Amino acid sequence: MPSRPKLPEIDLIRAIAIIAVVLIHSTSGATLLPIGGGSQAIFFILNKASLFTVPLFIWISGVVLFYTYYDRWGPGMSRVFWTKRLQRILIPYVLWSLFYYLFNQFMFHGTVRFDMIYFIKLLISGNASYHLYYMVIIVQFYLLFPLLISVVRRLTWVRRALIPIGIVIQAGAYVIHHEVHPLPEYASLFVSYTALFAFGAFVGIHYSAIAAWSERYRHLTGSIMFLAGSTFVGMLLLHQYGRTSFGNSWFELALLVYCMAIPLWAVQWSLRRLADSPRLSVVLTALGAASFGIYLVHPALLTLWGRLTPNQDQLWLYDLHTIAAFFIGVLGSWLLIRMYAAMKKGSA
């Protein structure tokens, strides 16, 4: 069966997600400023409102995998799939884990040593750098994908109930982790993100219908996204200022609704940009296409910027330093990726 047509809007959604990733990491220090200042509140809101980004990337993976393979998956494809997908991610993951293992030692301690056992533990947990746990999650979904798509294709009731099944599995893992016994490396386990992956899988199977639905009900999905996001961030603000206290389950529920509404909004927003804003679409498409490289590179640039610039004693200078960190993280990483691509093309 021939391949389904490419989805250009997915790169625009990737661009939204990678901008949010860099925004989280560039503002993380500013959220720890003394509470009560205006800039601390702004950076805090931007930081927490961007926490949809890993779930959005997980959703994109579910969409792309099921959109690409659902109609043409067959016996014997598992080995080819694993070889192709895991080579794309495992080799970069190991190399960049090694880089950050050595780089962070040098930047923060001025010395470098290599402990193989410790490094293997870092690889398994995704803790060689604060952003690499995402790669561990994706590898788990890649390993499970042949089984998942086979079950979905074979059992109609599973295909129809993908979203509630994903939510139940994620909720069950949450209850076990918080109420029964802590799960090791919980944040890096696939069960922490099954709701978004299953949602993406469902969208990938029924993409045209759901894209049309998201356009028809864009005001509804946008309103849900805004209300859920405002509720989530608002509860965090109230907790930070000590005004009231909420159980962790309420934060998780608000974040889940927020993260499941954002993809529907992002699909119709991206389709509209492609139709109405060709110049912006070209920029965002290129940014989205480079998102994996930006994801890998930007923590090194942020660390360099933080270590090589003097301490900012005045608050307004620290604010400028934080804003600059965001642009360095996005544009600096993007520039390095483009330079690498040009060098690779020139040597071919």
TrEMBL record:
<protein>
    <submittedName>
        <fullName>Acyltransferase</fullName>
    </submittedName>
</protein>
<feature type="transmembrane region" description="Helical">
    <location>
        <begin position="41"/>
        <end position="69"/>
    </location>
</feature>
<keyword id="KW-0812">Transmembrane</keyword>
<dbReference type="GO" id="GO:0016746">
    <property type="term" value="F:acyltransferase activity"/>
</dbReference>
<keyword id="KW-0472">Membrane</keyword>
<feature type="transmembrane region" description="Helical">
    <location>
        <begin position="90"/>
        <end position="108"/>
    </location>
</feature>
<keyword id="KW-1133">Transmembrane helix</keyword>
<dbReference type="InterPro" id="IPR002656">
    <property type="entry name" value="Acyl_transf_3_dom"/>
</dbReference>
<feature type="domain" description="Acyltransferase 3">
    <location>
        <begin position="8"/>
        <end position="337"/>
    </location>
</feature>
<feature type="transmembrane region" description="Helical">
    <location>
        <begin position="128"/>
        <end position="149"/>
    </location>
</feature>
<feature type="transmembrane region" description="Helical">
    <location>
        <begin position="189"/>
        <end position="213"/>
    </location>
</feature>
<dbReference type="Pfam" id="PF01757">
    <property type="entry name" value="Acyl_transf_3"/>
</dbReference>
<feature type="transmembrane region" description="Helical">
    <location>
        <begin position="220"/>
        <end position="238"/>
    </location>
</feature>
<keyword id="KW-0012">Acyltransferase</keyword>
<feature type="transmembrane region" description="Helical">
    <location>
        <begin position="279"/>
        <end position="298"/>
    </location>
</feature>
<feature type="transmembrane region" description="Helical">
    <location>
        <begin position="161"/>
        <end position="177"/>
    </location>
</feature>
<keyword id="KW-0808">Transferase</keyword>
<feature type="transmembrane region" description="Helical">
    <location>
        <begin position="12"/>
        <end position="35"/>
    </location>
</feature>
<comment type="similarity">
    <text>Belongs to the acyltransferase 3 family.</text>
</comment>
<feature type="transmembrane region" description="Helical">
    <location>
        <begin position="318"/>
        <end position="337"/>
    </location>
</feature>
<feature type="transmembrane region" description="Helical">
    <location>
        <begin position="250"/>
        <end position="267"/>
    </location>
</feature>
<keyword id="KW-1003">Cell membrane</keyword>
